[in-house]
Structures are given as C-alpha cells and as structure tokens.
Amino acid sequence: MRRTKEEAEQTRCALLAAAETLFLEKGVAHTSLEHIARHAGVTRGAVYWHFENKAHLFNEMLSQVRLPPEQLAERLAGCADRDPLLTLRDLCIEAIENLARDQQKRRIYTILLRRCEFTADLREAEERHEAFINLFIRLCEQQFARADVCPRLQPGISPRLAARSLHALIVGLFHDWLRDPGLFDPLNDTAPLVDACFRGLIRDW
User: Fold this and answer.
1) Could you give the CA distance from residue 60 to residue 125 in angstroms, rounded to a whole number?
2) Measured in whole angstroms, how far is the alpha carbon of residue 144 from the centre of its chain?
3) Which of 64, 68, 168, 170 has the most CB atoms around its CB within 10 Å?
4) C-beta separation of 140 from 87 below 8 A
5) CA separation for the pair 145, 158 (Å, rounded)
C-alpha cells in the first residue's frame, strides 16, 4: 500500500511539473489535459484521478508557491510585541525577493501573470485567484485599521486606500520584473521600494 501511495504522489508531481513546463511554453489556454498527460508519460485517466479539471490542476500548481490563506493570516497577524506594519513590510519584501531566489516561483508567477488567459474552463481557478487577492487586501486593510496604526496614516489616506496602494505596488513589481528582470534587482532594490511606499502611507515611517 505504501508503494502505491508513493507512486501516486510521484505521478501527481509529474503532472504538476508537466503542466508547469507546458503552461510556460504554450500558455495555459493552449495546453490541454491531454498534452499534460502525454508530456508526463501517463494516461489522461491518471490526470483525472488526481485533478478534477484543468482549473483544479492550475490552482494546485499555484498553491505550490503561495502561502495558504490560513498561514497568510497568521503571518500578517505578526507578533504582539512588534509593529504590525513591519511584519507586513517584511512579507511584501520576501514575496518579491523570492522571485529571484526560487526558480519555480519565478516560472509559476510568469505563467499566472504573462501566460494565462482566464477562459471559461478556468473560471474556477480565476475565482480562487481573485479570492486570494481580496483576502490579501482585506488582511492588509485590517493591519492599517488597527487602533495603534490608523492614527499614523498620512492625511487623506484611509486603511482601505493604504491596503490597495500596497497591493498595487507589489503586483506592479511582480509584473515589471517578470517582464524585464533588468528593471531592478529584487535582492537589493525591493526594500527601498517598499519603504518608499510605506513612507507615503505612514507619517512616522
């Protein structure tokens, strides 16, 4: 039984690796489950044993490189004796720096941001992706709305606007670096870029 479980997990990993390779090469919309099965050297039936459809497979691929919602919420909650905005800052910097450090993250985010058209068969994956984005913005807004943080916001900046500004920066940096890695150095330039955003949002940053 143990051998069977190990083989099943190997097949699942092979399918995810094949999907990653083909999505990056051909784009998500132009890659079928049949293509993925063939590339992984398994039957189409093996694909459906592990994944309900292409949207499920796509979402599982994304789950390999981003924090689960529960872990994201835990990270953003930070430590009781630490400025919550420092925890948020560090998480944002880590997300960008990891594009340079982790080749799989770079490939998968390239697929998500540059090789993916959310067609009808990917509607479920699109909804999950949008839910993750909305969760991140909502958790950021909660940090900016804290009683010990909100009074520090710049005049005219609400917790809602602060959260959306920070999210826009992070998404912009992701898009720009994946489009042209020469635009900035993630390992040396990310912290100053994120701090500049926080200075525009927080009076005493």
Assistant:
1) 9
2) 21
3) 170
4) no
5) 8
Torsion sign (Cα): 185, 190, 192, 197? positive
What's the pLDDT score for residue 1? 45
The pair of structure tokens assigned to 72 is 């994201």
Tokens of 195: 């701090």
Residue segments in the chain with a per-residue pLDDT below the cut of 50: 1
- CB atoms near residue 39 (< 10 Å): 17
Distance of CA 142 to the CA centre of its chain: 20
The structural domains of the chain, with segments of one domain joined by +, span: 2-51, 63-201
DSSP 185-197: -HHHHHHHHHHHH
Top CATH class of 2-51 equals mainly alpha
What pTM, to 2 d.p., does this model score? 0.87
* Residue with token string 């900046």: 157
CATH of segment(s) 63-201: 1.10.357.10
| Residue among 124, 108, 104, 127 at smallest CA distance from 116 | 108
